[in-house]
Design brief:
The protein has 260 residues and is of the alpha+beta class. Helix content is 23%, strand content 19%. The chain has two domains: 123 residues, Tumour Suppressor Smad4, CATH 2.60.200.20; 104 residues, no CATH class. The protein has six helices and eleven strands. β7 and β8 form a beta hairpin. Keywords: Phosphoprotein. InterPro entries: FHA_dom (IPR000253), SMAD_FHA_dom_sf (IPR008984). This is FHA domain-containing protein.
């Protein structure tokens, strides 16, 4: 259900031309060529109301909940339903939101339903380098993008982000005061303090922001050098854990003696 390869989204299909849209829900899947003006609709209804059925029986989902239109060389997504549509990185779309273009590759979206239910719609837009298809099961796995950290930075971020590394629900960073107390225990009293933590975290955030490819914002637009904002620190830790730059075995740093 979560494969990102287009051939799994269009079972048994011939290699698709660039720009082909593959869409799948739990109950249906379709492949649509990139024809200017083509509209693909999805929602609770059946044909001819929609091309892709989603969430049969969930009355919180609109019969026509969303649509994708091919124009200007891209598929444009629009929410036409009453409930929100959630996109990657927490982005929400309301029916009043403007259309957004899909990038090539995989995009999951979630339609809000009854209670805590969300209904997954998987979208895949074929890229140029996939023409000709062919299985690539034997190709080497591409590792996730990871960001370099020195030993002190890793220790500090593990302390601040230990709840993230435990994969807790809705984790938040430790405060600088809490982190300083824990670092005193690990490294020896007086080695770390709140000001040093602030400087270290700021340096990491600025370095990562300069790289330009971090998935979340880690600096304020108006002041990149000031104290760490709690939400931006959350973004930093979330991105480092999701990229496996920080991993659960790093928590072992909190158990042993570390030379600060």
């Amino acid at each position: 259900m979560h494969s990102h390869r287009p051939e799994t989204l269009a079972r048994g299909a011939e290699p698709a031309r660039p720009g082909t849209l593959h869409a799948r829900s739990v109950i249906a899947d379709i492949s649509v060529p990139p024809v200017p003006g083509r509209v693909v609709r999805f929602g609770r209804g059946g044909r001819p109301d929609v091309d892709l059925s989603v969430a049969e029986g969930d009355l919180r989902v609109s019969r026509r909940h969303g649509e994708l239109t091919y124009r200007e060389g891209k598929w444009w997504l629009r929410n036409t339903g009453q409930q929100l549509v959630r996109l990657p990185r927490g982005r929400m779309m309301h029916s009043s939101s403007g259309p957004i273009p899909l990038e090539t590759g995989y995009t999951p979206l979630f339609v809000r339903g009854s209670g805590y239910r969300e209904h997954l719609v998987e979208l895949y837009v074929t890229d140029h380098d996939e023409r000709g298809g062919g299985a690539r099961q034997e190709d080497a796995t591409l590792p996730p993008k990871r960001w370099p950290l020195d030993d002190e930075e890793r220790l500090l971020l593990v302390v601040l982000g230990q709840h993230y590394l435990l994969y807790e629900e809705c984790p938040r960073p430790l405060s600088y005061r809490q982190a300083a107390l824990e670092l005193d225990y690990v490294c020896g009293e007086g080695v770390w303090g709140e000001r040093r933590i602030e400087r270290k975290v700021g340096a990491v955030r600025r370095r990562i922001e300069r790289g330009g490819d971090f998935p979340y914002s880690v600096l304020r637009e108006d002041d990149g050098a000031g104290p760490s904002d709690h939400n931006l620190l959350h973004n930093l830790l979330r991105g480092l854990v999701e990229s496996t730059t920080l991993v659960p075995p790093d928590l072992e740093l909190l158990d042993g003696d570390v030379d600060g």
